[in-house]
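Regression report. Comparing outputs from two consecutive submissions.

Submission 1:
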Amino acid sequence: MQSNSLVLDRVSKQFDNPQRPGETLRVLDNIRLDVRAGEFVSIVGASGCGKSTLLRLLLGLDQAFDGQILLGGKPIRGTGLERGIVFQDHRLFPWLTVRENIAVGLKNSPLSAREKTEAVREHLALVGLEAFADAYPQQISGGMAQRVAIARGLVNRPSVLLLDEPFGALDALTRTRLQNELQGIWARERITMVLVTHDVDEAVFLGDRVVVMQPNPGRIRRVLDVDLPRPRNRSDSAFITLRDDLLSDFIAPGQA
């Protein structure tokens, strides 16, 4: 099994019910999913379907769940350098420059100081921010800040990059541009990527497969292969057909 293949085997998760002491709320139910090495998988679902909880489990922030999650055949135990993360909020440190914020991703890396400097330089180039290396977060746009966050998530060369609604806070034009840039980065780097989103269009545009989740409790409704050439064309009839097929999962009878 390759080191960046990801297996979710009968994963379930429940929380204590704050409204009814002694009872539990099941938020994930029997999740089974194999993510191939180098694959881009989109997970889409309405609010409350457990997709963000699932991402927390993949990141290793919560160990209290049933089933198992394997990376390269080994159980995930806590956080680790082999898993990078990009959040909706870029979470940059305002007192650090762009270069220094990317370097934060190497804090626990075994690389030498020279190797870290080179890694930061390479990832500044990867996201096209060489000219802004010495700028501070307040001096750059929201889209640029999110590119810094992507570079920070990749700088450790993780086996898997997890993306939690990474473009959700951006305007439509910036979001579209960054989706194109992320698609290009994935095509060059071939790092396994798992995207959580509520945006069906984004899920189809970026994913090799789209995992559709439904709530109460969160479970996989279906998995759709996106057999479209890259780079993707949103106005292509095949793209529109796939997108509309997925959208139908979220439209109740009588709402169309």
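Submission 2:
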Amino acid sequence: MAPVFSHGDLRLYLLSLLEEGPRHGYDLMQALSDRTGGTYTPSAGTIYPRLAKLEEEGLVTKSVDGRKTVYEITEAGRAEVAARAGDLEGIEAGLTDSVRLIADEVRGSVRAAMKSLRADLAAATRDERATANQTPPAEGPRMASREQVHRADAAINEFRAQVRTDLRSHVARGGELAASVVDDLTTALDDIARSITRSLRG
């Protein structure tokens, strides 16, 4: 997974956010999340050391407002943002591309898992129908159906475990999970449920 910000870019981007107005650390983290559609939310351990470095360089100042520490850009900070306007435009463009790639990657993983689950459930349905046609009446069909229910349970549990692992690993590596990806997952699961209901009624 490629990082959202290349080395040194986050520093300049923080300055550009502070140029819009004074902010405290949480405001900056939220602004970064908002600008990236929720695909990137930096931790306090990422933001505060960079703010401390910017203060050390004389590019920002900080003041205490109640329980919050507010950061404000200095004239030297504004001069750096102005001098690096071209770099900032490149960061904005790269940020858009990076966020799009991350979202596409997660959506691709979810769609692949959905496709695999559909195939497993379709195979289970075909097997159930074939077994029902070959098994004598009475207890045979019920036993075969119970066996297929167990197979379906196993397929669903395997899918759940795999998607859960993929999503948690993605977030643990620093990636962010966009609401649109979860919406895609929910829609796909709803489609599968309706498809299975139609097959069973048919």
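Expected: both submissions complete independently.
Actual: both completed, but the second showed a warning that disappeared on reload.
Relevant detail on submission 2: DSSP finds seven helices and three strands in the chain.
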